[in-house]
Amino acid sequence: MSRLIKIVLAILGSFAAGGGAHAEGGARPSGDNRMEYPTGDARLAEAMRKARETLPRFLQLADTGLRGAYLLKMRLAGGGRAEHIWVEVTGMRNGVFQGRLANDPVTPGYRAGDPVELSSDEIEDWMINTGEARFGGYTVRAMLGDMPAAQAEELRRQFRD
Q: So which residues are the signal peptide here (predicted)?
């Protein structure tokens, strides 16, 4: 993955969902360009539902040979927190996606580049980033209102259906 895409992934990063002090509020910055959302955030739940519903589109675009970074979002848990993180897809075997963590998680015991496998029912979002356009990315779209205006506008410009 190019350095530019890694930087973009770090900006989009992952969002951590947990309870505690922020459970009654909305999103809040969490450092390293990450956002924390309360468990059960309705916008993100709807975004995940839409991502799962449109997963066939991800596979369809892959079948066309569209060039870009193919990403899936999954949940990591550990240390009393849940983190939702992007995985760069490297393949698929027997219906199971294979990939590598796309950025450094906050969850203990993991780091960027670690290999992971996930089944379709573990996928929370999908995105294909061609460098000029992005397909999918429904959880990112749900977070646009919580991002700095210039960053959000640039992402809005890139999203395609």
A: 1-23
Long-range contacts at 80-84 (CB < 8 A, ≥ 24 apart):
80/18, 81/16, 81/18, 81/106, 81/107, 82/16, 82/17, 82/18, 82/39, 83/14, 83/15, 83/16, 83/17, 83/107, 84/14, 84/15, 84/16, 84/17, 84/124, 84/125, 84/139
| Alpha carbons 152 and 140: distance in angstroms, whole number | 9
3-state SS, residue 109: coil
| Domain boundary assignment for the chain | 3-13+41-160
The phi and psi torsions of 99 (rounded to 5 degrees) equal -170, -170
Q: What is the pLDDT along the chain (161 residues), one digit of tens a residue?
A: 333 333 333 334 333 333 222 233 455 444 455 677 777 789 999 999 999 999 999 999 999 999 999 999 999 988 887 799 999 999 999 999 999 999 999 888 899 999 999 999 999 999 999 999 999 999 999 999 999 999 999 999 999 98
